[in-house]
Structure formats: C-alpha cells, structure tokens
C-alpha cells in the first residue's frame, strides 16, 4: 500500500480506478497535506505492507540516505538497468522500517554480543571455524567481527559445505535451544547456504502479537516466520547477506553494515488517544498506530492530520466523515486512503485497524488542512 513506482497501489475513487502516484500528482496538497508535500517533494514517503513469512526470508540490510544517494548514482553511471538482478540500489532513498506482529513472529536482528556469539559458534564449528573464532575472540570488537563476517561470506564453496555440514551435525545434538533449532530449519530451506549460521551470529527474536521492532539503516536482519504489518520509508534498496538465490554483493554489504553489539528494543503501543496506541520510533517518514475500536470506544480523528492509510486486521466497523456525511464499511482486509484535506472522521464498531501516517511537528499540526 503505497506509491513506489515499482508496484504502486490502485485507488478506487468514485467507482473509477487510478494509480496512487497519479492521484497524488493531481492533488498533492489535498492528499499529502501542505507540510508533508513540501518536506517530501510531493511524494508519499512511506510504504505499508502485510508481510507473511511462510518460509524464512533473506538476510538483508538497508543503506542510509547518503549511501543510497551515492550507490544509486554510481550504478546509474555504470549503466546497470534498474531491473537488473545484480543491481543493489533501485532508488536514492534509505529504508528504515517497523514490523509489528499479528501472529507470533520470529526474526533475526542485529549482531549478538561477541561474548554470546563465540560459545555458540564454537559449539557448532569447532573445527571448520576454529582458527577464525580464535582471532575473533582475541579482537573482541566490531573490527574483528567485520573481519570474521567477511571471511565467513567469502569462503570457498567446498569450505562452505564443510562448515555447514559440521554445524548441522552439532546443532542436531542441541535440541531445545531455539538458536540451534532455527539453524536446522534454515538448513532444510537453504541447504548449501552458510547463512544458516545466522541464528548464532544475530539476535533471535520472537515478537508476540501486538509487539513491534524498529530497524534502522545498516542493521542485518531476516524475517523467519509469522504474519505482521510492516511500515517503511518509500524505498526498494536491499543488500542481501544470505538465505537467498538472489544477488549477494558482499563488499557493498560490508560497506553499509553496522557491526556494533546492541540490545534489542521491543516496542509496545503507547496510548495516544482512548482507542489509539502508537509505536514510537524516530522515523521522519512514517508513524505506525493501532486503533482498537469497541462498542465502548469509538475512534475520533484529529482535525489536522497528514495523509493516512488505514488497514483492518480484525472485526468490522464503519468510518463516517464529518463534513459530507460519507460512510465506509471496514472489515478484515479493507484498506482506506484518508487524504490530509479530508474532514475529521469517526470509526465505530468492533475492529482492530492499523494506521500509517507521517509524523508532523507541533507547528505543522497546528495549521489548517488544505481543502
């Protein structure tokens, strides 16, 4: 749900269908709002998705804005077609993202602490990676971790097969630990990929329904299993690091990755209104909220808003606008575009609805919507 040129949404408007980018081009101030249109060059700055990881998805990371601008220009100069399989940068934007679980959602995110990583890898590959792990233990820092990760990503195919074989043999002896269980599952899906070691390298997370994570630039991650809503900046820039048959550019991946150890922050919705909980992030392009509408609690929108996209994941409700008395039925799977210039609205019923919008400063929020 968005306006990325690769796969833009179609909008049903008065019985007719048109692309969302075309609609925004015709009415940028009315759809986006004056402040958002000015900040983001008349473009919708976010993409809103439902993500179903039926099997583990690729290990990947996204560049920051400067890296995206440089990489996009460089590959354009080299004449690499936008749709080429070996293209890394398909636009010049960064891609911070927020994933919110609808079902139990397993993911890998960011490098473990080296002190946590080492015993796991030593248990899995004491022979195949013995020398490399001794060097990593001696360094104990981000520089050593980058050197170790480069070695792991560039070993020869025969050596890779030896490492994977040893790791699986030892993982099967460690039943009951989710790290090793996921290594076995990843091997079943990607039997020849050294990326199956990622649960020992990266933090393994299981989000409960309603919990979320925010991922910034350069953070290596993979979504393993589950259903969630995902909100991100309007970009398609992905550098892959394994568990995929697609193009992997190791050197460019190493250039953008953050090798710092980090603790994982799990987001819970913070009450913003009686029916609204907000997932707080520092993203400039998007804000994710969950609306829980009941018979006792109707959602009443603010008068001054940015553009919003609503997506219903459970139940049924009715949205009614104040100015023209228009009414829309909402049920599971319904997606609605709310222009910034639309009058205030009320949602009544019993439903859970996720709302994507653009953060506004107090000065912007105090202004009048265009009409």
Would you write up a description of this structure?
It is a single chain. The chain has 371 residues and is α+β, with helices and mostly antiparallel strands. It folds into 2 domains: 46-267, Phosphomannose Isomerase, domain 2; 270-365, Jelly Rolls, CATH 2.60.120. Helix content is 29%, strand content 30%. The chain contains 12 helices and 18 strands. The protein has helices at residues 20-26, 28-32, 34-39, 65-77, 114-124, 130-139, 142-154, 157-171, 178-189, 198-201, 250-256, 362-365; strands at 10-13, 16-19, 46-53, 59-61, 97-101, 105-111, 202-207, 212-215, 221-233, 239-242, 270-273, 276-279, 287-293, 299-300, 308-321, 327-331, 335-338, 345-357. The strands form 4 sheets. Strands 11, 12, 13, 14, 15, 16, 17 and 18 form an 8-stranded antiparallel sheet that branches. α8 (157-171) packs across α9 (178-189). The chain is globular, with a radius of gyration of 23 Å. Residues 367-371 have low confidence and may be disordered.
What keywords describe this structure?
single chain; 371 residues; Phosphomannose Isomerase, domain 2; 8-stranded antiparallel sheet; 6-stranded antiparallel sheet; 12 helices; 18 strands; disordered C terminus
Distance between the termini: 24 Å
CATH class type of the largest domain: Mainly Alpha
Low-confidence stretches: 367-371
Question: And the CATH topology of the largest domain?
Answer: Phosphomannose Isomerase, domain 2
Name the shape in a single word. Answer: globular
Order of helices and strands: EEHHHEEHEEHHHHHHEEEEHEEEEEEEEH
Beta percentage is 25-35%
Mean pLDDT: 93
Q: Tell me roughly what share of residues is in helical segments.
A: 25-40%
The second-level CATH architecture of the largest domain is: Orthogonal Bundle
Specify the number of helices: 12
Rg computed from alpha carbons, rounded to a whole number of angstroms: 23 Å
User: SS-based structural class?
Assistant: alpha+beta
Q: What does the largest sheet look like?
A: 8 strands, antiparallel
**Number of DSSP strand runs:** 18
Count of folded domains: 2
In CATH, the homologous superfamily of the largest domain goes by the name Phosphomannose Isomerase, domain 2
């Amino acid at each position: 749900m968005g306006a990325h040129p690769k796969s833009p949404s179609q909008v049903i408007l008065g019985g007719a269908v048109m692309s969302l980018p075309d609609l925004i081009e015709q009415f940028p101030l009315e759809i986006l709002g004056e402040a958002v249109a000015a900040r983001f060059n008349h473009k919708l700055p976010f993409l809103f998705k439902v993500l179903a990881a039926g099997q583990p998805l690729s290990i990947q990371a996204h560049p920051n804005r400067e890296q995206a601008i440089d990489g996009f220009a460089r590959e354009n100069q080299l004449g690499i077609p936008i749709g080429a399989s070996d293209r890394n940068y398909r636009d010049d934007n960064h891609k911070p993202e927020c994933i919110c679980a609808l079902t139990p959602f397993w993911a890998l995110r960011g490098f473990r602490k080296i002190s946590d990583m080492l015993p796991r890898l030593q248990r899995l590959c004491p022979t195949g990676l013995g020398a490399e792990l001794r060097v990593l233990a001696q360094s104990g820092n981000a520089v050593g971790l980058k050197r170790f990760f480069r070695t792991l990503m560039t070993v020869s195919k025969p050596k890779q097969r030896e490492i994977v074989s040893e790791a699986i043999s030892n993982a099967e002896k460690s039943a009951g630990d989710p790290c090793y269980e996921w290594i076995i599952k990843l091997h079943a899906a990607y039997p020849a990929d050294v990326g199956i070691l990622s649960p020992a390298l990266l933090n393994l997370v299981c989000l409960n329904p309603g919990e979320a994570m925010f991922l910034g630039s350069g953070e290596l991650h993979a979504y393993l299993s589950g259903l969630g809503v995902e909100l991100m900046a309007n970009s398609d820039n992905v550098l892959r690091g394994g568990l995929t048959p697609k193009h992997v550019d190791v050197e460019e991946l190493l250039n953008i990755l953050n090798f710092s150890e980090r603790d994982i922050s799990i987001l819970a919705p913070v009450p913003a209104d009686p029916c609204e909980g907000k997932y707080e992030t520092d993203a400039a392009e998007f804000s994710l909220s969950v609306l829980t509408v009941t018979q006792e609690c109707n959602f009443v929108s603010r008068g001054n808003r940015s553009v919003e996209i609503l997506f219903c994941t459970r139940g049924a409700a009715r949205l009614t606008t104040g100015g023209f008395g228009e009414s829309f039925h909402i049920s599971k799977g319904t997606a609605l575009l709310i222009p910034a210039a639309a009058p205030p609205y009320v949602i009544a019923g019993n439903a859970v609805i996720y709302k994507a919008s653009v953060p506004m400063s107090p000065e912007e929020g105090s202004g009048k919507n265009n009409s």
